[in-house]
Specification:
Shape of chain A: globular
Oligomer: homodimer
Largest sheet of chain A: 6 strands, mixed
CATH architecture of the largest domain in chain A: 2-Layer Sandwich
Helix content of chain A: 10-25%
Radius of gyration of chain A: 21 Å
CATH class of the largest domain in chain A: Alpha Beta
Distance between the termini of chain A: 28 Å
Strand content of chain A: 25-35%
Strand order of the largest sheet of chain A: 13-14-15-12-4-16
């Protein structure tokens, strides 16, 4: 599809917006009311770069919701079914957030910066409203803000080399999801081993947006000997790797799912007994067992992705959805993710433009 | 700006998406995680049509947050500083929503469908999360949902003729913001005299998205004798008319404002004494008086709008922002809206691309 995007004052511009314009960004999407680059004109080359060398991504739209105050720990634990009691300062955690009925409303990475200060690095929904309402109605002492923090991702097999060149050799010893508060040539940031790919890498959480272009250029210069280039979160790679995408794979408004259905059972700590939003609903859901689950799919004939979920059919009855699919160069197959009835996973089809395509369910990740 | 938009499964498609594609939609923006048409290739003609005949707009991205249950009235009154005690069924109300610090977080139109059922026709933020958290933590009996409702606006001086042709002559007697639950050739909808322009018109809240293209075509056919054509909420007309745009004129994350600053003082019913979110902060703000207020501006030299807020300067010091501006054909002037220091409204400038443009503050609406 080749429609334009209207760039107006209602959409926020990232700290790296000017830099990405200079790099020739060709398409944008919108995430957390902010423009986020889609690609830079050559999606195939960008995929190859992510897989074989190193890419840099403007992911500032992954906003931080900061919870700060004496009751911040109480609030963050109440927000998620995952037990956080062993979480240390400097440790990131992937945490599902559910509503009171157990449906997922976001799946941020939690960063514990201090005993009384956390960031939720959020997917595309207004969690600051959710957290603020709960904190205030509970009477808890927590201040909810959106700090001036803009993540820049360095992803790919050579990302560690680039990051070590910038921050020193000790970064090679950092554990996955570990992070440190540091600076780079006087620019304040949080450095984390993380990122929305399975190719390895780091995220630089810039803490002063006025340095957006400066930081971009520092990373670009350091990465040039490793073949760095601009890119963006890559749908094909994330499908291959089985990464969840809130908004695409599930969304409260359009296609709800609970953590069990989405394969996040290990992150729901019911036994431990901590109080959290959705607990009653999730206890019940666990007892009843799930009827649908997240699946990978192979789709015959390589149809063009329509840009929206497609009904999964069995004997012409709807038995689920394929939420996103793409052609995988590595597998030479069209792969996708969806949610399907557990009892009916054979002889599946989708219909696209009057054409019927056979679908075969498989496990994820694909690679 | 001519960047593409990435149309993927993370962005919702409106019930009228297929119809707008057929009409040749040229650009989209994103609002409430949904694609919303920007224009159809000829913004000038679309402006003229809105001013002189009649336009039809896909505004399905104006989603409904439904509050239903025994305590729905209690919740909706708690959500807004506006006193709703006299609101009748079938009456719409423009209501500011604030956070606990008195900052605006949305400005929906409230529709009272029944004593225990309301819709908030929301601007661009996830009010369903806010409302659900509050209702649940209060222990109130209210169910928060996003029903399958998609507004289609008919706007312009001939909108009443089109609507009367579709629904009968009695619609001419409908009051502004009045609405009825009705149907059109078996299609269930709510018909309201409303819409985000000052050119007059109606909104058809389609209650079954499967009829999106059908309803679009019915309206198109009925409107053809009046010169109807596709369009979208028009930034120039809304600036001329002084309509607020949450996200552009203010947004919690980036440029906060309270209702007094935004000219909504008459909608804050402090005297009446009802409890509402932000009351303490707004009582204090009222006592202290405001230091900034919403203004209209004339900008010299007709610069190109940059698509983001621009600092307003006085003696080279920042004294506010111009949030959006555009060239008004009717006034033959470049006009805008912003927020400015009350004490310093003379000798103002903005800087754009190294050029200094003189700015003169004026009242809104312009027309």
């Amino acid at each position: 599809m080749t429609h334009r995007i209207g760039i107006g004052p209602n959409l926020r511009k990232s700290a790296f917006y000017d830099a990405t314009i200079k790099e020739g960004v060709a398409s944008f999407s919108v995430y957390n009311h902010m423009l986020i680059p889609g690609h830079f004109g050559n999606p195939d080359a960008e995929y190859d770069r992510l897989l074989n060398s190193v890419a840099m991504w403007d992911v500032a739209a992954q906003r931080q919701v900061q919870l700060q105050g004496a009751d911040a720990d109480k609030l963050v634990q109440y927000l998620t079914p995952r037990n956080l009691s062993s979480t240390r300062i400097g440790q990131g955690r992937y945490i599902p957030l559910c509503d009171y009925d157990g449906w997922l409303i976001n799946d941020p990475v939690l960063l514990k910066l201090a005993e009384d200060c956390y960031w939720l690095s959020v997917a595309d929904s207004d969690i600051h409203l959710w957290a603020a309402a709960i904190a205030h109605e509970k009477g808890w002492h927590v201040r909810i803000t959106e700090p001036d923090v803009s993540p820049l991702a360095i992803q790919g097999p050579k990302a560690e080399n680039v990051t070590a060149k910038l921050f020193g050799e000790p970064v090679r010893a950092m554990k996955y999801f570990g992070f440190i508060e540091t600076e780079l040539k006087g620019i304040p940031l949080v450095l984390a081993r993380s990122g929305w790919s399975k190719q390895g890498g780091f995220e630089l959480y810039l803490r002063d947006s006025t340095y957006g272009s400066t930081l971009w250029n520092i990373v670009k210069d350091a990465g040039s000997e490793f073949g760095i280039g601009p890119g963006a979160p890559n749908d094909t790679e994330r499908l291959e790797s089985g990464l969840l995408s809130y908004g695409a794979d599930m969304r409260w408004q359009t296609h709800r799912a609970n953590p069990f259905e989405m394969g996040l059972t290990s992150l729901v700590d019911i036994e431990n007994g901590h109080e959290f939003i959705g607990r009653t609903a999730l206890v019940k859901a666990q007892q009843q067992g799930i009827k649908r689950k997240r699946v990978g799919v192979f789709i015959d004939d390589h149809p063009e992705p329509p840009g929206h979920p497609v009904a999964l059919l069995c004997d012409d009855e709807p038995v689920g959805f394929v939420h996103e699919f793409a052609f995988s160069k590595r597998l030479q197959k069209t792969i996708g993710v969806g949610l399907a009835d557990i009892a009916r996973q054979d002889e599946l089809f989708i219909h696209l433009n009057e054409v019927r395509h056979h679908v075969r369910v498989t496990d994820i990740p694909f690679i």
